[in-house]
Design goal:
By secondary structure, the chain is of the alpha/beta class. β8 (about 230-235), α9 and β9 (about 260) form a beta-alpha-beta unit. The protein has an eight-stranded mixed beta sheet, with helices on both faces. It has an eight-stranded mixed beta sheet with strand order 7-6-8-9-10-16-17-18, with helices on both faces. Strands 27-26-28-25-29 form a five-stranded mixed beta sheet, with helices on one face. It has 34 helices and 30 strands. The chain starts with a helix and ends with a helix. α2 packs across α12 (about 295-310) and α19 runs antiparallel to α21 (about 660-690). It is found in: Membrane.
Length: about 950
């Protein structure tokens, strides 16, 4: 029994040991030391300097990492190196070998974008992370999940290059790049970025890696024939070395040229031959900025020693940023391997099938996804600075701007995404993004020049700017073309020509030789319209034997939208707009009905209605209490009209008893005062200055009346009139001011025109002549334009500089001097001044407020009067014995009766103590005339009512009114 128990115990121990062995043995790895060995492949170009440097950096990175983490790390990376031999196929073969035979869990490299593309594809298939310094934007971690870019994306430098171009105001660049994935990858980003600052890529020059020296020279000579002198070069040292040697040979590294190189070349300048560096003097470049640190300096010392031991035949011992990125990438991989806790590499083989390729037979890495997750987002301070991987992409920080001087480059500034260009990396909180060239250090440009190149030159073989000028038979004050009788040389004169000469000769910061070429046929006639002339600029070839395309067009060329599609205009140098010239209207003072014109019809009608209404209101208030308003019906109607219209001349003499009527009349008299004053002023104006009124006040009047209109021959105004829906059969064109005068004098019905439509400069000049300003006047502007400008080809670098010069000229007294020479001093024309004070008929809108006040006053008083009347006769309205018709008849009779004021009779006494007997006829319809009354009473009433002198001159008038009322009541 005991033996059986002992046997079971031994068997249990053996079983436990076997289970433990299943877990312990793999963890102990291949070396039996308890550490897991993780196989990692390295694919580099062993013959290339960048590959040599990176290989040493990767080895040192792992040694340094495990030396610092030997007590905490349970894994060790074992490197398996392969040489890509600078070939795409060799790089792909090396990757397959590492995955199939070694079963590596990650691959460092390759560094060339063309090689990395195939290796990344293999990594995606096998789910093995590929950590490469390939910078081509065409390779994206977003599209390749197992690609980790251990370098800055090539597109990240685009903004820094754009900032440099923007800082110096260059409007055109030529892009030169190698015909590889690396070269082509950044081109779309550069194009978009330059367009964002209105800089055009005038030409793209693509060079093959196998291009011969003769082909490079041929391409350079082609570039010399162009105006642009700013070149952006995007290529690696292999091709760049030969390219810049030929640039120096072609004398294109002289004064006036600008050469800008990208980071791939700038970062490797130390590895280029000194003779090549000598041919690049004055070049500007950008490269990723590597902050200085003691850790970096110590590493460089150790690296030089180690590199010399591994490469004794190499004389160059300078570190580059690609080596630092390789060091940091290896460090990141070691960190990720330690964090992910991966075990022995295993690949999940596919289901056995016949004829499997080597790539398909490899299978899928089981540890790859875990390692990728640890790699995609990691951050630490490495030798290259802050090494931050975000979604598999190294994040850019800042770029260093350098100038190639002497044996290498010299720092002139920095660029950061937040602050732009700066001299250093110490920023204040108040600093904003800047692209100011003053924030850069001193630059030595090609040709050892300190002067900033303007970025363009006249093409070789074309020493002068070809300037086209219009040929015309009139308006010589603006532009005129003649030929010297002896030399046949073109002589251009005029206001526009002098402005152009002033701009080009005195206000441009550089000299531009030019010559004037007339736009004419062999018969010395104009070769077409101004649109045809402007279009000649956009022609790349001379399509017509007799016509010639130009580098610019100068003259009285108006800036309009359809022309701007073919050319670029400078800023305008004249006032803008299109206006009409029309004759003065004939004198209207002999018109028999001119007295009706001061007021519009609506104002006449409204005034008449208010006269009648006010008369009616006053009659309603006075009819019951005032004998003067109690005549027979016919006379009462006459009284209504008489009283209201008599207020027009303030001739009303009827005594008003009711306070309501007095209130209404006070307001109405004020309205009449304003109306009569305005009428008098308007009529006076019409009788004195009405002759200066233009015959047409608006272009719509001409369209509706279908009148003939004139315009300047060859002008864009013809198209403008067509857009305004004018009948083209009513168009007439003219070439001189004399023709303008003749056509306007005849008029539209006699073979002339009703108006001339032209631009403001011409109209101002036309009306400046005394013989014309007395007969015609300007109406408008009726259309806005930008004025006269100089035309240049699309994207011409001259446009911004000439525009600035135009501003300087227009702001100086020199423009006034040129205007006085050609257009004369602007004098005042008395007739034109009079035309500005013509009188128009008054409308109802000007008096709405007055009529509203009068209406509110009258209606308010009328409502109050009716309320009192109804209140006094409420018994009649409330009676139940009568019908509504009877009640209305009774109310009408009551209103027609004289109001009983007997309650106040006892209070009124005659002025003397004697009583006065009043006959009963006092209640008749009309008051007695003084002739039929008692002579003494008549004399007394007359004296007091008319306000004449009496024995008691101090007796108030209102007492007289009370006495008369008492006599009437008795």
């Amino acid at each position: 029994m005991q033996e059986h128990q002992r046997y079971c115990s031994q068997l249990f121990v053996l079983l436990v040991l076997f289970i433990i062995s299943l877990y312990v043995v793999p963890i102990s790895g291949k070396n039996g030391s308890g550490l897991i060995e993780v196989d990692v492949g390295v694919i580099l170009d062993a013959d290339h300097m960048v590959g040599k440097v990176s290989q040493t950096c990767i080895s040192m990175a792992l040694e340094d990492f495990y030396a610092l983490n030997q007590n905490h790390s349970t894994t060790r990376i074992v490197l398996h190196k392969r040489d890509s031999k600078g070939d795409v196929v060799e790089a792909a073969s090396a990757a397959i070998d590492l995955l199939k035979n070694v079963q590596v869990q990650a691959i460092l490299g390759p560094q060339r974008s063309s090689q990395a593309e195939f290796v990344i594809y293999i990594g995606n298939k096998t789910q093995v992370p590929i950590i490469s310094q390939a910078t081509s934007p065409s390779l994206s971690p977003a599209d390749n999940p197992y690609f980790i870019r251990g370098a800055q994306n090539g597109s990240s430098q685009v903004e820094s290059l754009t900032a440099v171009v923007q800082a110096f105001g260059w409007r055109e660049v030529v892009l030169i790049y190698e015909d590889t994935d690396y070269g082509r990858g950044v081109v779309p980003f550069l194009t978009d970025s330059f367009q964002g600052i209105n800089t055009q890529i005038k030409h793209r020059s693509v060079l093959s890696l196998s291009a011969s020296d003769d082909h490079i020279l041929e391409e350079l000579y082609k570039l010399m024939t162009m105006q642009t002198r700013v070149f952006v070069v995007h290529m690696l040292p292999f091709l760049a070395s030969r390219f810049f040697t030929k640039v120096k040979q072609a004398e294109m590294m002289n004064k006036g040229y600008v050469w800008i190189i990208t980071d791939g070349l700038t970062s490797l300048l130390d590895y280029m031959d000194p003779t090549v560096i000598n041919s690049m003097q004055g070049v500007i470049g950008v490269k990723p900025y590597v902050p200085k640190s003691s850790k970096l300096e110590n590493f460089k010392v150790r690296w030089r020693k180690r590199f010399h031991q591994e490469n004794p035949d190499v004389d160059i011992f300078e570190m580059n940023v690609f080596g630092l990125w390789a060091y940091d990438s290896a460090t990141v991989l070691a960190m990720a391997v330690g964090r992910s806790g991966i075990g022995v590499s295993k690949f999940k083989k596919p289901v056995a099938k016949e004829n499997l390729t080597d790539l398909a037979a490899i299978g899928i890495s089981e540890m790859g996804p875990r390692l990728l997750q640890s790699l995609q987002n990691i951050e630490f301070n490495g030798l290259s600075g802050k090494f931050h991987l975000l979604n598999g992409q190294l994040q850019p920080l800042s770029f260093q701007i350098v100038n190639v001087i002497g044996k290498g480059d010299r720092e002139i500034g920095f660029w950061t995404q937040k602050y732009g260009i700066s001299k250093n990396l110490s920023f204040s909180n108040s600093k904003n993004y800047s692209t100011n060239k003053d924030d850069l250090g001193a630059i030595i440009w090609p040709g050892e020049s300190n002067v900033v190149p303007k970025g363009w030159e006249l093409p070789i073989g074309e020493p002068k700017l070809r300037v086209g000028v219009p040929v015309k038979g009139g308006f010589m004050e603006f532009v005129s073309v003649e030929r010297d009788s002896q030399t046949n040389a073109v002589i251009a004169t005029g206001f526009c020509i002098d402005v152009f000469k002033e701009v080009m000769d005195h206000y441009l910061p550089y000299a531009v030789p030019y010559e004037f070429l007339p736009f004419e046929t062999p018969d010395d006639e104009s070769a077409g319209s101004y649109d045809d002339l402007v279009y000649q600029i956009s022609l790349g070839l001379k399509f017509c034997v007799h016509l010639q395309n130009y580098d610019a067009v100068v003259g009285d060329i108006t800036i309009v939208s359809n022309r701007s599609r073919f050319v670029d205009f400078t800023l305008p140098y004249t006032e803008s707009g299109v206006a009409m010239v029309v004759p003065f209207e004939d004198d209207d003072r002999k018109n028999a009905w001119i007295f009706m014109k001061p007021l519009k019809t609506d104002l006449w009608l409204t005034t008449g209605v208010f006269f009648i209404f006010t008369g009616f209101v006053v009659w309603a208030f006075e009819h019951r209490v005032n004998e003067e308003f109690r005549c027979p019906p016919g006379k009462q109607v006459g009284m209504i009209f008489w009283f209201s219209f008599s207020t027009l001349v303030f001739a009303h003499k009827e005594k008003l008893i009711s306070n309501l009527s007095r209130f209404v009349v006070i307001v109405w008299v004020f309205v009449v005062l304003v109306l009569t004053s305005s009428y008098t002023a308007s009529l006076t104006s019409m009788l004195t200055v009405q002759k200066l009124k233009p015959s047409a006040a608006d272009i719509r009047d001409l369209i509706q009346s279908k009148e003939y209109v004139g315009y300047q021959k060859g002008s864009f105004v013809e198209g403008l009139l067509k857009n305004k829906a004018f009948d083209t059969s009513k168009f007439k064109n003219y070439s001189t001011f004399e023709q303008y005068d003749e056509a306007l004098s005849k008029g539209s019905k006699k073979g002339g025109v009703a108006a001339i439509i032209d631009e403001l400069p011409y109209i101002r000049l036309f009306l400046s002549y005394p013989k014309y300003c007395a007969k015609y006047t300007m109406v408008g502007p009726i259309y806005k334009t930008a004025g006269f400008g100089f035309a240049f080809p699309k994207g011409s670098p001259l446009v911004p500089d000439v525009s600035r010069a135009v501003l300087n000229v227009t702001e100086q007294n020199v423009m006034t001097r040129i205007e006085e020479i050609w257009l004369g001093k602007r004098t005042t024309c008395a007739e034109q001044d009079g035309a500005r004070v013509t009188s128009d008929s008054l409308t109802l809108d000007s008096f709405k407020g007055l009529f509203i006040v009068a209406a509110v006053t009258s209606f308010s008083a009328l409502i109050l009067f009716l309320s009192i009347f109804l209140y006094e006769n409420w018994d009649t309205l409330a009676s139940n014995d009568s019908s509504i018709r009877d009640k209305l008849i009774a109310m009408a009779k009551t209103f027609d009766e004289e109001k009983d004021n007997s309650s106040d009779a006892s209070k009124r006494k005659p002025p003397t103590g004697e009583g006065m007997a009043v006959p009963s006829t006092a209640t008749t319809d009309c008051p007695q005339s003084p002739a039929t009354s008692d002579s003494q009473l008549a004399e007394w009433i007359f004296s007091h009512d008319e306000g004449l002198s009496t024995t008691e001159t101090s007796t108030p008038i209102h007492e007289t009114i009370e006495i008369v009322e008492s006599n009437e009541e008795r």
